């Protein structure tokens, strides 16, 4: 089962970082967030990836083409024109990076990578800027159990502001970013049947628009409830929050050893 990662957007809300590189290559620790997302999937045995590139996509190609170089100590023998790698950690992944266009919308990017999917095979899909401690295998099992065309990870986002609890006119507690009401939002981490691609007209189709609306109307979109950690990286503040969790060894999405 292949994993498709949408990684072609401009990331304009994180312009402090994305003027120089695509958002999926913005680092948490010393690794791009794209690497963190792929590591989540690989932990559950899903290690064949299709990356939908667009904005500065050549940098994503260069990163994976030189992955061992990026994450190893090296000795360069200029006389013999050789490179010797030390402390090399090479993940056993297969990664296809596909140029899906600069201004293509999310649905169009999925449509463009159809030739890279195996015919009739269920596939996984998520966004290249969010991490979670989701049990991907459990979500796949849930998807197979209901027999619908699509499963979406549905999360209850934390509230934007902290709240106070009041007891008889006195503040009794502060609650930092409480869970919002019981309404849930699209958290990515989809499981999709290939027939979903037939609902996408072309480059100008947003997957979150007509395709998801039609799946919903037809009763073909299931919600996998995830109540654990989930965090997108849309702003510099969110990047810094993820960085702090990683730096202090408290990153909930680090499921791998």
TrEMBL record:
One of its GO terms (biological process) is O antigen biosynthetic process. Keywords: Nucleotidyltransferase, Transferase. The gene is rfbF. One of its GO terms (molecular function) is glucose-1-phosphate cytidylyltransferase activity. Residues 2-228 form the Nucleotidyl transferase domain. The keyword Transmembrane does not apply. This is Glucose-1-phosphate cytidylyltransferase. The keyword Endoplasmic reticulum does not apply. Its EC number is 2.7.7.33. SUPFAM superfamilies: Nucleotide-diphospho-sugar transferases. It comes from the Bacteria. Pfam families: NTP_transferase. InterPro entries: G1P_cyt_trans (IPR046981), G1P_cyt_trans-like (IPR013446), NTP_transferase_dom (IPR005835), Nucleotide-diphossugar_trans (IPR029044). CDD domains: G1P_cytidylyltransferase. It is an enzyme of class 2 (transferase).
């Amino acid at each position: 089962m292949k994993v498709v990662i949408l990684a072609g957007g401009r990331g304009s809300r994180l312009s402090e970082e994305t003027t120089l590189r695509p958002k999926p290559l913005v680092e948490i620790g010393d690794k791009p967030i794209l690497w963190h997302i792929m590591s989540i999937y690989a932990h559950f045995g899903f290690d064949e990836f299709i990356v939908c590139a667009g904005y500065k996509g050549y940098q994503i190609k260069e990163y994976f083409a030189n992955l061992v170089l990026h994450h190893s100590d090296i000795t360069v023998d200029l006389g013999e024109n050789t490179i010797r790698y030390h402390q090399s950690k090479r993940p056993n992944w297969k990664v296809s990076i596909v140029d899906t266009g600069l201004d293509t919308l999310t649905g169009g990017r999925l449509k463009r990578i159809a030739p890279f999917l195996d015919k009739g095979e269920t596939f996984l899909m998520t966004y290249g800027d969010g991490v979670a401690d989701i049990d991907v295998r459990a979500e796949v099992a849930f998807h197979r159990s209901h027999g619908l065309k699509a499963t979406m990870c549905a999360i209850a986002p934390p509230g934007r502001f902290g709240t106070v609890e009041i007891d008889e006119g006195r503040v009794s507690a502060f609650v930092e970013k409480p869970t919002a009401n019981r309404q849930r939002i699209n958290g990515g981490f989809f499981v999709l049947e290939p027939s979903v691609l037939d609902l996408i007209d072309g480059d100008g189709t947003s997957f979150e628009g007509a395709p998801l609306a039609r799946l919903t109307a037809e009763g073909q979109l299931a919600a996998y409830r995830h109540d654990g950690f989930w965090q997108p990286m849309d702003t510099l503040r969110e990047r810094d929050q993820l960085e702090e969790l990683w730096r202090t060894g408290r990153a909930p999405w680090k499921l791998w050893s």
